[in-house]
Specification:
The complex is a heterodimer of chains A (248) and B (514). By secondary structure, chain A is α/β, with parallel strands linked by helices. Chain A has 9 helices and 10 strands. A 6-stranded mixed beta sheet of chain A has the order 6-7-8-3-9-10, with helices on both faces. Chain A has a 4-stranded antiparallel beta sheet with strand order 2-1-4-5, covered by helices on one side. Chain B has 21 helices and no strands. In chain B, helix 14 runs antiparallel to helix 15. The longest helix of chain B has 35 residues. Chain B is globular and about 70 Å long. Classes of the chains: A alpha/beta (248), B mainly alpha (514). The interface between A and B is large, with 44 and 38 residues.
């Protein structure tokens, strides 16, 4: 089975600044992969290129064996992208929003209606299905956007800071949902600054800085890479990024 | 003068800085805007102020009924215009700026914060009128009439009174309607008042020279009527503007009194409302829609349905779009009246006016559906072809225009099938032109920036309007069976071809804009 995501030599510069610099990494099918890095490390830029929102200057992106640069529509069909700021319409209600997203992904109308109901019930939004998103709390907006990301049953789910600004209950619900998706065979890539979440949830972790991959692997592999005595992911992360900063 | 941090003056300076930056826009626009501002002021000074100053040198302006009635009318217009501005500015200051929480959480006295905020409102509404009126008045004052400087004080007084009434109205509306509706009502009121004065200014075009002159004559007749018994003090606004001490003091005291009273009444209530607006926005904005029916299938139908829903749910925006029709009324009537002089040209004139109207409304709606997309990344990350999504958006923009035009075109077709069909063709062409121009030259923005959507795209805006006029002209000429109408038609089509952009060019333009 091909990797869920394979990136080779990916490069993207904004003016003189290289946001992503010859980055290569693989995400295996059916795993939850956490992409970590300090602010401005190039995480979001990388994921935006994978989602087809940015054109790389160089490199290759393959999603389940589909060349995402040569055939972006085919790749987009199996990807869902959920940024930290939910992509919603204030004057649509959740059901109408899901109708629109399902239409964009070409999901059969009847199937989409059924699936929308399932998702909204699962996320506790069914009672709010007729209310416009403009009055929603941050958590409700995030959950609506997540339902939109899942409406076409993506094989690869990419989430940028999915837990930002969520209260404990909603954050728990989102984490449960992601783990349930992984158990169901989907692949999840997420970025987060909450290292505890990555430590507990991720099968494998990638750490990038200045657009380059510093290390990639399971927690124990990263601990080994960081040197003895580094127990938590936070320790590992700080050690690896400090070492890279010193070498830069 | 250095104002100590936390003082009223310091706060006022902060308010004024925010007001001026709000007017100026970005840094680049600031430079261009500043140059333009100075040029207009110089023009007003040299072309209006200086000649007027020479004209009035050594002459006294008599306080006669026709003059003080005119001054009273002008000040009433000024007050209404300022009131409409204050109303929306008060709503903006209360619900949209979002800095009240910061100010209230500081150790500054809340009353001081609010008083300064209200003074800032009065300043912002007075500023624009002072800008236009000061350059003509200052030369007059220098060349023999220093007492005329009092006119500037009267303008400030009107600004204070309008701000006071505006604040009372905004708070009252909030109590009655809630935050969200108050904002909409304030925007609509401001738009309608603006449009009403625009139409009033175009009275001559609307009524024709003869009838509008007779209207003015009637005002004069009332003023000269020997039985005319003016109310006592009705001439005081004019006397105040001419610098008479007692009337000036009375006007200043009355307006300051209104402002202070409003500030007192509103002050406590305002703070409570601001807190309620922040906390209760969820409650106020949870609106239920009817949920039924099947989902739309496919990207085209789903996008079309979504765009129509969003358009239908934004009454403030739709009103602004339809007000554009109102703004075009004088032009259309002028066209019709000129055409009516030669009976045969009456219907072709209507055809041209309809075509121009179609371009205006379609252009506005196309900007909303295409450039003001709220979730562009969502669409870009979908596998749907961009062209298909854009076509759905254009259809959503064109549909309401067709609905608006149908009841106007149908009688035209019944009266004269040829003119009606040409008008329909002209409308269709102008709708298509507006849609394509908005597609090819997208200017991403927020719906709330509708009024300022031309900023940064003046060349395209002028081009778009020129094309609309060419197509409307061609429509009128062809409807009148004048074959020369083919020339502007060909010119419009050629220009449209030259302005065409490929999908890749559009994408590159959007990336550059981002």
């Amino acid at each position: 089975m091909p990797d869920a995501l394979s990136i080779r030599g990916l490069t993207k510069a904004f003016g003189q600044k290289r946001a992503v610099d010859d980055l290569s990494l693989e995400v295996r099918a059916g795993e939850l992969y956490a992409l970590l890095g300090p602010n401005g490390a190039g995480k979001t830029t990388t994921l935006r290129m994978v989602a087809g929102l940015l054109k790389p200057d160089a490199g290759a992106i393959s999603v389940f064996g589909v060349d995402a640069l040569a055939d972006p529509a085919a790749a987009k069909r199996i990807i869902a992208w959920a940024p930290d700021e939910p992509m919603l319409y204030d004057r649509l209600n959740p059901l109408e929003y899901l109708e629109f997203v399902a239409g964009l992904w070409g999901v059969d109308a009847k199937q989409a209606r059924r699936r929308a109901e399932e998702l909204l019930r699962w996320l506790g939004l069914w009672e709010n299905r007729g209310e416009r998103c403009e009055g929603f709390s941050r958590g409700m907006k995030q959950k609506t956007a997540l339902a939109g990301a899942l409406i076409h049953d993506p094989r690869l789910l990419i989430l940028d800071e999915p837990l930002t600004g969520l209260d404990a209950a909603v954050a728990r619900q989102v984490k449960d949902l992601l783990q349930e998706r992984v158990r169901g065979g989907a692949t999840v890539i997420l970025t987060t600054h909450i290292l505890d979440v990555a430590e507990r949830m991720a099968d494998r972790i990638g750490i990038i800085q200045h657009g380059r991959l510093l290390a990639q692997g399971t927690l124990s592999e990263l601990q080994a890479a960081a040197g003895g005595g580094r127990n938590t992911l936070e320790d590992v992360f700080l050690e690896l990024t400090a070492r890279a900063e010193a070498g830069a | 003068m250095i104002a100590p941090p936390g003082s009223t003056l310091w706060l006022l300076r902060h308010e004024i800085r925010l007001t001026l930056r709000g007017i100026g826009g970005g840094r680049k626009r600031n430079r261009i805007g500043a140059a333009f501002t100075v040029l207009v002021a110089l023009f007003m000074l040299l072309a209006v102020g200086v000649p007027l100053a020479f004209l009035l040198r050594g002459q006294e302006v008599p306080v006669r009924p026709e003059f003080y009635l005119s001054v009273l009318a002008a000040l009433t217009v000024l007050f209404t215009l300022m009131l409409s501005q204050t109303l929306s500015a008060a709503v903006e200051a209360l619900y949209q700026r979002g800095d009240l929480d910061l100010l209230f959480s500081s150790p500054l006295d809340a009353r001081k914060v609010l008083t300064v905020r209200f003074l800032g409102l009065a300043f912002s509404v007075s500023l624009i009128f002072l800008y236009f009126l000061a350059p003509p008045i200052i030369p007059i004052a220098i060349m023999g009439h220093p007492e005329w400087l009092a006119a500037l004080l009267v303008i400030v007084a009107v600004g204070l009174a309008a701000s006071g009434v505006g604040l009372l109205l905004a708070t009252g509306l909030f109590r009655l309607l809630g935050a969200r509706r108050t904002r909409t009502v304030a925007q609509l009121l401001a738009a309608f008042i603006g449009a009403a004065f625009f139409l009033l200014g175009q009275l001559r075009n609307l009524l024709g020279k003869e009838r509008s002159t007779s209207l003015f004559d009637q005002v004069l007749a009332v003023a000269h009527d020997p039985d005319f018994r003016p109310l006592p003090g009705i001439d005081w606004p004019m006397r105040a503007m001419l610098g008479e001490a007692l009337p000036l003091l009375a006007v200043m005291a009355a307006s300051t009194g209104v402002f202070v009273l409003a500030t007192r009444i509103v002050g406590r209530r305002f703070a409570a409302d601001a807190a309620a607006a922040a906390g209760a926005s969820v409650r106020a904005q949870r609106r239920k829609d009817v949920v039924k029916g099947e989902f739309a299938a496919g990207p085209f139908r789903a996008t079309l349905r979504k765009e129509l829903r969003l358009l239908a749910r934004d009454p403030a925006l739709i009103t602004q779009v339809l007000l554009r029709v109102l703004y075009m009324l004088p032009l259309g009537l002028l066209l019709l009246r000129e055409a009516a002089r030669g009976e045969d040209l009456l219907l072709p004139g209507a055809a041209a006016a309809l075509s121009l109207m179609a371009a205006q409304v379609a252009g506005s709606l196309a900007w909303i559906t295409i450039s003001a997309e709220e979730a562009p990344d969502l669409i870009a990350s979908a596998p749907a072809r961009a062209g298909l999504v854009w076509r759905a958006k254009l259809a959503a923009a064109a549909g309401p225009v067709a609905l608006l035009l149908a009841p106007l075109l149908t009688p035209l077709i019944l009266m004269s099938p040829w003119v009606g069909c040409v008008a329909a063709f002209g409308c269709a062409l102008n709708i298509a032109k507006a849609a394509l121009m908005n597609l090819w030259w997208q200017r991403p923005g927020k719906r709330s920036e509708f009024q300022a959507r031309r900023k940064g795209g003046l060349f395209v805006a002028i081009g778009e309007f020129a094309l609309s006029v060419l197509v409307a002209g061609a429509t009128g000429l062809l409807a009148a069976k004048i074959v020369w109408g083919l020339i502007p038609l060909a010119a419009a089509l050629l220009a449209l071809l030259l302005l065409r952009r490929s999908e890749a060019q559009i994408a590159a333009g959007l990336r550059a804009a981002a």
